[in-house]
Input
Amino acid sequence: MPVELTPETRAQCEAIISRYPDDWKEAAILPVLHAVQKEWGYVPMDGLKLVAEMLEMPPARAAGVMSFYPMFFKAPLGQHVIQVCSTLSCVLCGAKDLVEHLKEKLQVDVEGTSADGKWTLAKAECIAACEGAPAIRIDDKLYRDLSPDRLDELMAELD
Amino acid sequence: MPIKECKILTALQDVDGLADIQVYKQHGGYEALEKALKTMSPDDVITEVQESALAGRGGAWFSTGMKWSFMPKEPDGPSYLCVNCDESEPGTFKDRQLVNRNPHQLLEGVIIACYAIRARAAYIYIRGEMWEELEQMEQVIGQAKEAGYLGQNVLGTGVDIDVFTHPGAGAYICGEETGLMQSLEGKRAEPRVKPPFPAQKGIFDRPTTINNVQTISYVPHIVKNGASWFKEMGSERYPGSFIYCVSGHVKNPGIFELEIGGCTLREIIYECAGGIRDDNELKAVIPGGSSTPVLTADQLDIEMNPELWAIPGRGEFQGMFGTGGIIVMDDTTDMVDACLNLMNFYAHESCGQCTPCREGIPWVRDIVWRIAHGQGRPDDLDTLESVCNNVSPLLTPAMSTICLFGPSWSWPMLGFIKAFRSEFEAHIQKGAGVTTA
Output
């Protein structure tokens, strides 16, 4: 389990913290958690303690904040996370077909990770790309106007 | 009569490379900033914006200039600007386009706004799902700093202004302005009770103004061209343009920047967005993001002028104007199913702070789920109405929650029942539902 950050990530965290007033270090918790999660893929308990230490806040409070925000993960996920937007505009335009296709293709349920550890399937709430419905995110990237075929192509490119 | 486009914010939408400061400057970028900082006092800028009657496009339509005037003129410490780029209202996607296509336009507005309200720094709160836009915004901030438009002694005026991005992490409630402030302070985004208002005590206990991306993006244009130019467009009370986002069962989904007033909801759907896919019949329209009560096919001739709508105005039309997020549904749509989809969304996003909301929305979702799945009970609609009315009755100011998230689900729920009661009743009677959401 990772317990130390690379010097680069640590420097990045320090730079983030400097954006906020000196006596409000914990304001940096969301960007710092994003940076930490980028390095480790998730935020383990020891990592959260490290974050709390950097921000000079009690670990319990840091845990309370982290658990409020759905984008932070307490356990490792697949190499790539596919989030299918499942709010109304995307569902009207075929998002459910994408979810069914992925369940079948990866042999997983929603929130599951494929046996080879490559793909995690998740649903997302509206991702503000309704003109390109159905839209998905793979890791940090947005893709619009998906169909099961187009999704297959995309996954082959990323694999 | 064809609809007149009114491209202020989207005028350069098709220009490539606008995220490069040189390209932006070739198109007149940062001229407004130079004008404001070199020829106008902060109060001149506030007066210009106040005279333009620019109103907040986040949905409240409050006068931007007036909001700015609440900020201290001689602050005894730092004041702040927060930019709400946490666009998460289902059906709304204009902020993503504005930030993606023309990020310097937003940044120029942010710097001018900081100058006007005497803010030491601005935080642009960008939802975590817009990571590509966030990274681009950081580059754009770097370019502006290098050009002397940001940082210490901006353009030699002796004024210091910093702009930072701040990523969200997937919580819809951060779009509520006091939830956003909580989140920016590194807390759970549980909205605050007002007063104190942000201009008195906002982020870091300091005076703060919160503006929406679209609102701020107008600022360079108003400063450059003057308040009277802005007032030539749109309606008298609400001048200028508005960006509509059309999605769902239309042939040509997308964003359309039009004058406020001067066209109807029907015209936007059939002329701008090309009408209904497969030439099906239109069945229902959510006019301004998922929190606005659904309308039926016979209600589309209403003019798109907020003054005429019950919310935010006092208009006679019993609808809510909202965010411009128009979701169109054709006659293949099961309305109980559509309703369930949205109630799932709200149940997922309640922050859990107020009991009527924390307990009410999962209850509502569960009832709609069983109606959709053929297990509805005869008194279900009465129960739904009772739970919702206890949170906030349709289009009324009464509410039992700290923030507007409560009405954001009770109104659309009541709206679905009002508009499509017979469809809900048929589901309950038949005991045969469609299972999708």
